[in-house]
Amino acid sequence: MVGVKTAFGTLVVGTALGFALSRIGFSSFDDLHAMFTFADLRMLFSYCGAVIALAVAWPVLARLLPAHGPYKRRPVHRGSLVGGLLFGGGWALCGSCPSIAFVQIGEGQLAALWTVAGIFAGNALYGAVHARYLRWDIGSCNND
What we know:
By secondary structure, the chain is an all-alpha fold. It has 2 domains: 1-73; 76-144, no CATH class. 70% of the residues lie in helices and 0% in strands. The chain has helices at 4-24, 29-36, 42-64, 79-94, 98-107, 112-134. The longest helix is centred in the middle third of the chain and has 23 residues, at 42-64.
């Protein structure tokens, strides 16, 4: 069970991240399109800066936190490729990834409610398809 202190911290960090993503422009389809077509490099540099910051911070966190914490290595399974393709296809179709859909809702873009509904429907559909047809190991998805 999550404590109040942890939940409040998560709320504060999530709100700050959502505000930053909104201010940078990641919630705008037009700005994202400009980034992917290299018409505006501002957001591309922001994204690359975040990747570099995480590349530096991740090993530091791994050393500071216990080996059995939430940052331990997990195996990659064959569903990662399928999941990545579905994630990318969904992002291209609706113009946002899951976190950005919530940022858009926070901005008052109510069309993002359709995106969130699609996220939940897609997860439910994948669960049913996986249980019936795929049945491969999802070990990297478990928190064990």
